[in-house]
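Why do we bother with a discrete structure alphabet at all? Because it lets us treat a fold like text: something you can write down, compare, and reason about line by line. To make this less abstract, here is a complete entry for Deleted in lung and esophageal cancer protein 1-like isoform X2. Read it the way you would read a sentence in a foreign language you are learning: slowly, and without expecting to understand everything at once.
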Amino acid sequence: MIKNVSDETIARYQLAKRFDASKLRFIWGTRSGDREDLAPGMSTALTFVFKSRSPEDYEERIVINVEGGFPVIIDVSAHRDPPILIGIPIREIRAYNKSSVSLLWSGDVTSSKNSSSDASTTPGDDLQQILSPWRGSPTSLSNEMELDCKNSLVGDEKLVETQLTNFGSSGRFFLISEANWHCRDITDLTDTCKLLTPSFSLWPAYFHLENNQSLILKTLFTPGHPGLHVEKIFIVCDNISVESFELLGDGVMFHWDFLHFSENLRRQSLPELEDNRFSNFFTAQLHPESLSVLVAVSNLSEFDLNFRWDVINDICLGVLPESGILPGNSTLTFDVFSRNYDLCSEFVESNLQLVLEDLPPQAIPREYQEFVEASRRKWRFPDAVEICVANVGVRLPSRTHSIISEEISSGNRDEENFYSDSIEN
């Protein structure tokens, strides 16, 4: 703010000539131009606009010559604000399509003010659910942070999408792994803008963000062995700053404990099996009247599992649903029922097998190999395997028991009809 403190004299002043490479631009509060007249007691605003592509601090001396008075000298110091990246995971994808890799980031840069991406939520959404892959709250990439991809079956893939928003100055960014950073030899960057590490892939590996712009950073977790996977990633910015964050993920092997069966399935202990070996043999009894039984199977893991039921004698026995997906942390109830009971009454027992399909072979422990075969149906893995997790022997009610039940039911109906006729008479 510049003010004429004189009571009588009009102040005439002019901005002194500056060098051509100046990075400052001025806006006068009265009119355009570098020559001004200011009446006694009046004031005007002088606005400095700084614009620079260099990350270095900038200094310049501004001289305003005043007619008949001393010049006004203003020392200006300026610097460009650094970029500030905030990352919020928005979703996890287990069924990942490799063919879309080269197209995923071409249109992902958007303005956060007008963005309608998947990160938008309704007021009722659970904040903790939105931030679930992070350990903690949304974290600036200018601080040490961790991006947790959680669990994935060994040999499987899991895609985590994270929205990065720049709340600071514009910047160009480049991702590099710790191994390449220390050896100064960039070998893990592909021509599709992907950063490849032994257990993780990230893209885009280099990008530019203006203020309040966002893009989707995609992280593909592909564990090749069980246990914790850790990878340190450096973010290099054109403001000569280097920050880092850690990628985390757990490789998990398949285990029988993934599934839990309802109590009406009784596990058999076979004498020929040793005590330390797993028995996946069960028995179930059909209800003598309905000739069916409900069986509940719970998936205690977080992985979606493809399943099918194999019926050894499908003329006598059926199950619904026969195949599908058993979602993680959920329970499905199956209806096991008798077909053509009159034709199958001589059979005491029929068998069902619950088979999990399309599993990565690397996720199957060695001690389970005797239960494993090549998968009949393969959706995601060319060498997928399937494993039989339950052999269910379904006992059919005897024909004698069924006849007795029918006679008792028929007798009850006759007795009810007799009482009804007596009341009417």
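What the structure line is telling us, in plain words: Residues 96-143, 401-411 have pLDDT under 50 and may be disordered. The two ends are 111 Å apart (CA to CA).
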